Amino acid sequence: MYGPSIDRLITALRVMPGIGAKSAQRIALQLLERNRDGAAELAASLIDAVDKVGNCSSCRTLCEGERCTICSDSRRSAQQLCIVETPADLFAIEQAGGYSGHYFVLMGHLSPIDGIGPEEIGLPILEAKLASGEVDELILATNLTVEGETTAHYISSRARAAGVAVSRIAHGVPLGGELEYIDSNTLSLAMQSRKVI
Amino acid sequence: MYGPSIDRLITALRVMPGIGAKSAQRIALQLLERNRDGAAELAASLIDAVDKVGNCSSCRTLCEGERCTICSDSRRSAQQLCIVETPADLFAIEQAGGYSGHYFVLMGHLSPIDGIGPEEIGLPILEAKLASGEVDELILATNLTVEGETTAHYISSRARAAGVAVSRIAHGVPLGGELEYIDSNTLSLAMQSRKVI
């Protein structure tokens, strides 16, 4: 409708999550009207990132180079291994601070209906790590969704078979959460998971 | 935080209107995790569009080539000239159908506080068009905002000085609008602008 190059750009912009037809059109026109330098820099940085960013050979997170900064950091302990679904989850835990072990990033979760089995989420690599004997504790930090729970359950059974201790991060009422405004599923989970003090 | 290439991509993504820090991070990670072909195509189409898309020499809208398809269409009348603020406004009127004249795209509106005067919105080109005598009627379709109204007022005074008839698109209750849900400014405008039937 706007000519071949603009139409192609509008279509290409829709690969981004959360960007629909109207937003893509608005972004394309605004970049071309007002910020061509920004558009050129965006193109260059996309090419650069696609070219340079790969996966860490040890933990599978997105990184530039063979191993990520966490896996290459000799001050961090390889005895603790925290399992997360995505690089964003890894960085959320890093930002919270306090954890000084290694990570393993699944890049997804088990979902047989979408054809995602143990191979696709890198479990053979994880099992090799567990068999090597360097891991003492596996901390499961997958999401509290049906798929995340299934994945956690599957991994914990494999870890126990390999003789590695397994834990799951705590779920319940968040800090500063007022009971009045917490959803009832979280609240009933918090009641069930109550701890003796 | 994620390494230089990913950080650069996250920063570059923020040139897009409506994309903040969190969305940029989510988009960058998701493209790199799941859709590298889409990211490469986005980069290529940005470069292509920045390279090929310019402004129509006659109406200033975004187009590929010297003159846009509307200005080059001999079936359209150059006697009517519709003034809009942006290419998106032009395409909205085209999609509505029924108008077969030419357009003039201001690429903004008068806004002295931002340093946008008559020069910046192409009024010298418009005045040359009006002076040439080929335009019979000027239709003002700028937005109904303070800046849009000011721009419309300024242009209408210049058009009258050049002896060209000026009209403004109608404003009031939209089709299918229920009075109960229309904002009171629109409603009071619709009352003031009532027509004898």
From TrEMBL, chains A, B:
It comes from the Bacteria. Residues 79-174 form the Toprim domain. A zinc finger (C4-type) spans 56-71. PROSITE patterns: RECR (PS01300), TOPRIM (PS50880). The keyword Transmembrane does not apply. The keyword Secreted does not apply. Keywords: DNA damage, DNA recombination, DNA repair, Metal-binding, Zinc, Zinc-finger. One of its GO terms (molecular function) is DNA binding. GO terms for biological process: DNA recombination; DNA repair. May play a role in DNA repair. It seems to be involved in an RecBC-independent recombinational process of DNA repair. It may act with RecF and RecO. Belongs to the RecR family. This is Recombination protein RecR. It comes from Gammaproteobacteria bacterium LSUCC0057. The lineage of its organism: Bacteria, Pseudomonadati, Pseudomonadota, Gammaproteobacteria, Cellvibrionales.
